[in-house]
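Need the bound structure for pyridoxal-5'-phosphate, inputs here:
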Amino acid sequence: MKTYSYGKQHITDEDIQSVVEVLKSPYLTCGPKVSKFEQAICDYTGAKYCVTVNSATSGLHIAMLAAGVGVGDEVITTPITFLASANCARYCGADVKFADIEKDTANIDPEEIKKHLSAKTKALVPVHFAGQSCDMERIAKIAKENNLIVVEDAAHAIGSEYKGSKVGSCKYSDMTVFSFHPVKTITTAEGGAVTTNDEALYKKLLAYRSHGMHHTQDWKYDMIELGFNYRMTDVQAALGISQMKKLAQFKKRRREIVDFYNKNLGLPHLIEREFSDACFHLYPVLVEEREAFYHNARKVGLNLQVHYIPVHTQPYYQTQGYKWGDYPNAEEYYNHCISLPLYPDLTDEDLQEIVKRIKEIL
Ligand SMILES: *Cc1c(COP(=O)(O)O)cnc(C)c1O
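Answer from helper R.:
Posting the output first, comments after.
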């Protein structure tokens, strides 16, 4: 029996060739492919600057540092996300505040953000869940009125648009972070990128990525801030350049799959707002008996995943004062959600087969 998981990379011979070429070249890292990939992301998103990194987690960390987030500050994000959206604030010693989600999109609710603002709030980290942009105009307005930095966690959302602007353009934010982990829309194996239109932030991101070093003259450099080695390699960047060329095709196929499920499954799913043109990363549905559904799906060859266990309920965040019951919409969503297979390699026959198997176990 053919098995299906919720997500999978799409790698072609052309991708493989581009990686092999780098392996035969003089530069495995810190070479021309990294700048070329960064330029490709700028060209695509319309952002002025891009800094690639070795993961979106690293990207979120240096975005927080560049934003000046530190001890005594608070950062607001959503509980329905991967751990890194919250952890990046903790790496800098800041406290995490969560704001509950909208039931119909599972994105952070701007009205909920307002409830958690305080004099200590320094930054907002909205997450474009499943690929659909948050309502960035409303989030930008809250940020402006309260003098906050906005870092978009766009790990799910390369290729997506909000009100006609590409996610990553930073039209409504200070920085945007992408992930190129293999389950995401394009991949560099591990990898990420931060975009911004602000030159000062750009320079800080560059420094934090590479030990806080600032080249002065000849062999000389000054280490100004405490940075890291978060650099992407040229091997990864070459794969990224090659994958970017297929982004439009990936986006088209991902939407076809979502439309197919919407039409043929009849299961409750997230809705897409007027302002969004999403490049979908996930297709979560809501089922009555999620535990049973998960196990029955495995029996018919569907290896599905739950996105996400609400971050505030993790044992670590419980030590930070959170508990089950704090965010009812997020918890209700979590109790019923499960993500179906969504990746460009799925054929029309695969989709028919997946829908057939799901109907068997419902
Ligand atoms: C995958 C993911 C990350 C982390 O990305 P890595 O590249 O694996 O570090 C961060 N935020 C969200 C929402 C993600 O889905």
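Comments: The two ends are 19 Å apart (CA to CA). The chain is about 40% helix and 15% strand.
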